[in-house]
Amino acid sequence: MEVSNAEKERKIEGYKQLDFEVVDFGRMSPGEKRDKMENLLSNRNFVVLDIGPGGERTHLSVSQRKGDLWIGVDRAIDTNNIDFRKGLVGVEEDTKRVIVPGYTDELPDVKADLIMMVAPNPQSIVEEGLLSDIERFCKKGTQLFILLDNRTEEGQFYGKKALKVLAEFMEDNNFDPDDLAIGDRKIDISTSRDAVGGRVVTASKFR
What is the dihedral of CA 186, 190, 193, 194, to 10 degrees? Predict the structure, then answer.
């Protein structure tokens, strides 16, 4: 696994646009949610749940291999004006990308192989229970990639508290700090200016 920000000065406007499907689980009944998720998971062998991939400009920050499913959840996404692009990552054929313009708690249950948060608001971790929102998606083998923003004044103020909350979450949910085992997939953080220079936390759930 490689985290790259070597080309962070490259203009975002030059990134390739991607095809995607918008799924508003918040407007579905429980049965419709379950059926839709089962359909999305069909023939998919690696599921990425990306919390907060960007509202005004949404980015794919992890490369996709054949059979991968990426689900990006962000309440700030405007479905009438979605600009979805990939960073410095490769995307193979037979991959799928789903944008969910809503809240994490609106999703039906799904086992995520990788849960990502690139530059989440540390105040949301400390005071709003952001981590508790992902607890039900964490199964044995789930891996975490969280990059905390420490560039902003808010990030610096809440940063240490957020790390403490994160450590408690990992202990309570049987996560061990560990390098990611995601094959040759690459994570690119250069699309998030707030993330550059931030603190990276990676872990895997052992039971």
Answer: 20
* Residue 80 CB partners (closer than 8 Å, separation 6+): none
Contact 47, 41 (CB under 8 A): yes
Which residues are CB-neighbours of 162 under 8 A, at least 6 positions away? 122, 125, 126, 148
Contact 58, 77 (CB under 8 A): yes
Q: Which range of residues forms the domain containing residue 65?
A: 2-205
User: With contact defined as beta carbons under 8 Å apart, do 36 and 25 qualify?
Assistant: yes
How confident is the model at residue 8, as a pLDDT? Answer: 33
Can you read off the two tokens belonging to residue 58? 């949404």
Residue 117's closest CA among 105, 131, 127?
131
CATH number of the domain where residue 190 is located: 3.40.50
Scan for tokens 């990992």, then name that residue.
Answer: 170
Which residues 6+ apart lie within 8 Å of 137 measured at CB?
Answer: 49, 107, 109, 110, 111, 112, 115
Mind listing the pLDDT tens digit for each residue in 12-23?
Answer: 344 456 789 999
Q: Give the model's pLDDT for residue 14.
A: 41
Which residue stretches of the chain have pLDDT < 70?
A: 1-17, 150-151, 191-197
Count of domains observed in the chain: 1
The amino acid that residue 19 corresponds to is: D
